[in-house]
Amino acid sequence: MDQDKAAQFLDIAFSDLCLEERLAQHFALHFGHDVPFLFVELGFTYIWAHDTNAPQLDSPYYIDGVEYTIRGQIEEFHLEPYLNRALVPVRPECAEGEWILTCDASLDQKLKWHLKRFDKPISMNAVVPAKQAIWLDSYGFDWDTTMIPLPEGIRFRGTAECPMRDFIDGHNLHAFLTDTEDNGRLDVGSGALVGSSGAGGGCLQDGVIWDNQ
Question: pTM to 2 decimals?
Fold first, then answer.
């Protein structure tokens, strides 16, 4: 999928429209024209089957002699952004995460999409400190001693700042980090990586670090 189309899919998936309207626009973009409501109903069915871990998720069914599976159709129609975030790990290597990382969009927009993927709401005010954490990491600031100031009204364990490590890990920002000479993860002379930023690390754990207090 080209970067521009991936960005369009993400814009639809994470818009404020109801699911029915988002699916109608999603399938129209996929096929290049408006589609019958049957496709929206199919989308509902596929998403429901996935989110309830239905036993028929991988069971074959046939249309005009052609074999399909629900899981295969989810991938075919690029429905990953609509799946229950509690059941799909927030990992950059999944299709949806790859779209966000590689599409033609600003870092601000990519971070907004990324933060909307979590099963627990994360304030869009997190975009600014997320960019700060990414920038500080690129210059080699220590993850454990560097504190990230939080937006007004947001607290981390009762304080208005958060250690950079907790912020990066809590929002799974590893895939947005850059290996540089300053942070010791790139040998500029050889161009070789000398360490790992942890890109593609584990999914979000219980307890998002944002507390509205």
Answer: 0.59
